[in-house]
Amino acid sequence: MKVRFLNLSVGDPAQKKEMINALDEVLTHGVLINGPELQAFEALIAETCSRKYAVGVNSGTDALFLALKCLDIGPGDEVITTSLSWIATANAIAMTGATPVFADIGDDLNIDPKSVKNLLSDKTKAILPVHYTGRICNMEKLLKIADSADVSLIEDAAQAFGAKRNEQAAGSFGALACFSFNAMKVFSSLGEAGAILTDKKEDVDRIESLRYNGTINKEVCIEPGLNARMDTIQAAFLLQKFKYVERIIHRRREIAAQYNELLKDIVDLPQEQPDEYNVYYTYTIQTDFRDELQSFLMSKGVETKIQHPFLMPEQPAYKEKSPSMTENAQRIVKRILCIPANEKTTDEEVEYVARQIKLFMEAQ
Ligand SMILES: *Cc1c(COP(=O)(O)O)cnc(C)c1O
Question: Ligand 1: distance of its center to the CA of 1 in Å?
């Protein structure tokens, strides 16, 4: 049996037809940038996440960068973020000229609020937690810390569209929140896309200017910016895809529940708590035999992934250049393994993968 980790082809004929129709409509009206689909998409995302506004941009990385710029974060400032994330999180901070400061993580793979508290300094301008694996951080504690230190909180919700904590949606906690709709994400475009959420109209104006070379009225440049606009066609695809998001999340949660049952007491599991509703961007298990298990699974036709094999502060770009606190993270990063758990994974595949893991672990 061959079990793919992820398969991005659009196999369902109805879905494929909808995508082609969406393309057809954009070709017909011809507003390829800032078209009506973009505005419809922004309104839909804002509403879904209980925010006043959403601004579409061309990637999650740009969403993070522009959110930080919107808060005037730059050289001399520090932004506290997690140690374990896709490197885009740290890069967005560093590209503003600010210094990323890397906090430790807990067993839930999310930033540890205690560590954040310990890393606060006079230079701290913001806290940038990542809802890793599609699981929302402990926002009660993080917001309290940000509040008492009088710093902003920006959510990196790139992996967590649709996730909830105490019934509250990912993207609705921070002053600003950033999403990615990159092709690999749970809610994905057919390429690159992202968005920033806020409740302030002045943030919208600033980000809309920054995403188009810092201009107002298209020609007058009031500050340096990027070209970071979302294509109308990606917004059109996302509007179609949105109809399936709930089903996608439901299926991912169903698979997680199956693994939870089949792998109980065999490896360490995500352990979703009663107040959490995780979307399982990845289903990440932990074991001391991670590398051996990954090789074994590969020999049995099972594709797995280590997301991510290096902590951000261990990357050459950041090593010894940024303050960090990584004791738990260093232990955990050697134990994590993402196993196939996307909406196309079948029950038979889940059972097969779980059986192989069980076989391997029993022999240890
Ligand atoms: C994917 C991702 C990003 C970057 O999003 P892109 O759209 O790929 O630029 C940022 N942070 C996290 C946690 C991500 O998973």
Answer: 31
